[in-house]
Amino acid sequence: MMNMQQMMRQAQKLQKQMEKGQAELAATEFVGSSVQDLVSVRFTGDKKLIAIDFKPEVVDADDVETLQEMTIQAVNQALSKINQATQKTLGAFAGKLPF
Predict the structure, then answer these.
(1) d(CA 10, CA 4)
(2) pLDDT by residue (tens digit) across 50-69?
(3) What residue ranges define each of the domains in the chain, with the CATH number in brackets?
């Protein structure tokens, strides 16, 4: 059985590893796109929107609704990628906690 000092050292080590993982995620860019890549968005791993790009052929003043739907699709795809990467990177620490 671990003593308290060993548990604290292990917890501190895991905390540093988690912080490193969080920093790496935050520095990673995630791209989401709509059907046919007509709309694409870029986020950082900490869910900050960096850019939204529209292909000229999707911009139609008479059909703003399609542009909105494609933008939503692209944003949701990027956020889903971020969530998956976060779970993969940080979820691994849950089983390593010493308590």
Answers:
(1) 10
(2) 999 999 999 999 999 999 99
(3) 1-95 (3.30.1310.10)
Cβ neighbours for 10, distance < 8 A, ≥ 6 positions apart? 2, 98
Q: What angle do CA 67, 72, 73 make, to 5 degrees?
A: 95
69: enclosing H helix or E strand: helix 64-90
Q: Is the pTM of this model over 0.90?
A: no
What is the identity of the amino acid at 96?
K
The side-by-side arrangement of strands in the sheet containing 29-33 is: 29-33, 39-44, 49-54
| Cβ 93 vs Cβ 18: under 8 Å | yes
Is the separation of the CB atoms in 85 and 45 below 8 Å?
yes
User: Tens of pLDDT along 1-44?
Assistant: 568 888 888 888 888 988 998 899 999 999 999 999 999 999 99
Strand ranges inside 11-65, DSSP E: 29-33, 39-44, 49-54
